[in-house]
Amino acid sequence: MATWNARYKAGEYTEVWAEMQALGAGIRKPARRKAADAVVRETMKRARGNVERLLAELPGLGYRFQGVPEPAEPDYPLELRIEHALEYVANRGGKQHKANPWSHPALAWVEEEEIEVPARFRRGNLGRSTHRPPDARMSGALDEIERQTGSPLPLAVRAWFETVGAVNLAGTHPMLNPDGAVDTLRVTPEGIDRAVADGAGAGFVSVIRHAFAWGGFPGWSGRAYAPERELAWLRSKLLPL
Amino acid sequence: MATFLERYQDGGRVALWDDLVALGEGVRHELYYADAAAVAAETMRRARHNVELLIQRLDGMGYRFLTQEINDKNHREALGRLAVEEAADNGRAMAIEFMNNALAGQAAPLENPDVLDRPTKQTARQINKLEKWAGGPLPLSLRAWYEQVGGVSLLGWHSTLHPNADEPAGLPGTCPDPLMIWLLESVLEMVEENDDGDEEGEIRLGLAPDETFKAGEGGGGPYEMVIPNPCADGIFEDGNGRTFVGYLRNLFAWGGFPGWECDKNAPREAIAKLTEGLLPI
């Protein structure tokens, strides 16, 4: 008898998740948990790959992520603080922080204070409102939600934030998202449905599967005149999950 | 889903160009480039048709096409006449006499490279040279213009469309701003003359003299576009903030003389004759 994960990898995506979901909270029993975790890991590995591909490909198509609007006037105290810290890391941070100075403790406050770094410092990289990779702070926020609800988050939900992070593809593009009016893939800790019962999280997986089936733009589902050329191209870059 | 070219040909031209511009550099993505370049080529094929029609119609209306040099001399003569207060109706006769002498033996406008200098097999090499010098591409619109149309000059004299300063209709300050885009060879020469080897970043590419220069009154800097620009279109800097395609669209709406847009004394009847049946771009 093939394992859930073997069946999942063979293409039984919805069937395996439905079986896991049917166990309810029982999915956490030791006898099932290991097999379930393997499927969750594989699913989220694919999801992370899909998100990374979308984040990499969309700007090339001319997609403009919404981000936080740049202030009309630069926030000089913030910019000077960032410049000072970057200068410090450049001079004293050592080789390991050359490629990514933002990982140096001298810039940890940027993440801690949830600062949206001005575009000129990001050098083309995405802002935190578009993608925030998993970190300890995000894990802490999930712990807090579980504490408040008195129940663990569904496996898939927790794994998403620990593997993929927070994602919001809101933005504009003349075909894919005219005037930013089309619903996009958006999964953030703030958007967690606290009413969802414990379990595998097949409902959540179904939602992100749907979003990826629409190239990250589930708002086109059921709409006329979907931009098929762009959606087909995006879909071709994504793995099924 | 219709292609860009199908959308353009179906009539959504303005919205389609807005979309192409909104794509930014994305227009060069493999998903879009060929389709967008086809739209640019079709747009400029229509522009060429319009330019040729305007030249023919202007010729039929007695428009005298002038080179920059003769145009300047004509305006100097007119200003000289104004200075000695010669009668305005004499001014027109004297201008015609001056031009008849200056233009003797000139080729028909459509065959005259001073009026329309069409692309040649050298054009691709010249565009590549310009892009190499700029360190990046021209916007699709400008590239397509030089591939489809070339150098154009509607500089000249006409008693109502482009009169001299000493004529009743040509009050000083009238700048009809006739269509003029320098030929690529001249643009390249200017680029090479101004190249001090230190150029980095964006470059302001002069494409035409400004309206006052065309009116023989000296003038400021040329109309320019910033290059390199990997987008579908860029701003044609004539002071109106329009893209190059937007500039051409407005220009054709004014029969090739967009300077009349801001003049309540515009010769609307002559302009209506010129614009009738022009292809929308």
Characterise this structure.
The complex is a heterodimer of chains A (241) and B (281). Chain A has helices spanning 4-9, 13-22, 30-60, 76-92, 108-112, 119-122, 136-149, 155-163, 202-213, 228-235; strands spanning 64-65, 131-132, 166-168, 171-172, 186-187. Chain A is mainly alpha-helical and 241 residues long. With 281 residues, chain B is mainly alpha-helical. Chain B has one domain. A 3-stranded antiparallel β-sheet of chain B has the order 2-3-5, with no helix packed on it. The longest helix of chain B is centred in the N-terminal third of the chain and has 28 residues, at 33-60. Chain B starts with a helix and ends in a 6-residue tail after the last helix. The model of chain B has no long low-confidence stretch (mean pLDDT 89).
Features:
heterodimer, A: 241 residues, mainly alpha, three-stranded antiparallel sheet, two-stranded antiparallel ribbon, globular, B: 281 residues, two-stranded antiparallel sheet, 11 helices, 7 strands
Short recap of the structure:
Chain A is mainly alpha-helical and 241 residues long. Chain A contains ten helices and five strands. Helices cover 48% and strands 5% of the residues of chain A.
What's the arrangement of secondary structure elements?
The complex is a heterodimer of chains A (241) and B (281).
Chain A: H1 4-9, H2 13-22, H3 30-60, E1 64-65, H4 76-92, H5 108-112, H6 119-122, E2 131-132, H7 136-149, H8 155-163, E3 166-168, E4 171-172, E5 186-187, H9 202-213, H10 228-235
Antiparallel strand pairs in A: 1-4, 2-3, 3-5
Helix pairs in contact in A: 2-9, 3-8
Chain B: H1 4-9, H2 13-22, H3 33-60, E1 64-65, H4 68-83, H5 88-102, E2 116-117, H6 123-134, H7 140-148, E3 151-153, E4 156-157, E5 180-181, H8 184-194, E6 203-208, H9 211-214, E7 223-227, H10 244-253, H11 268-275
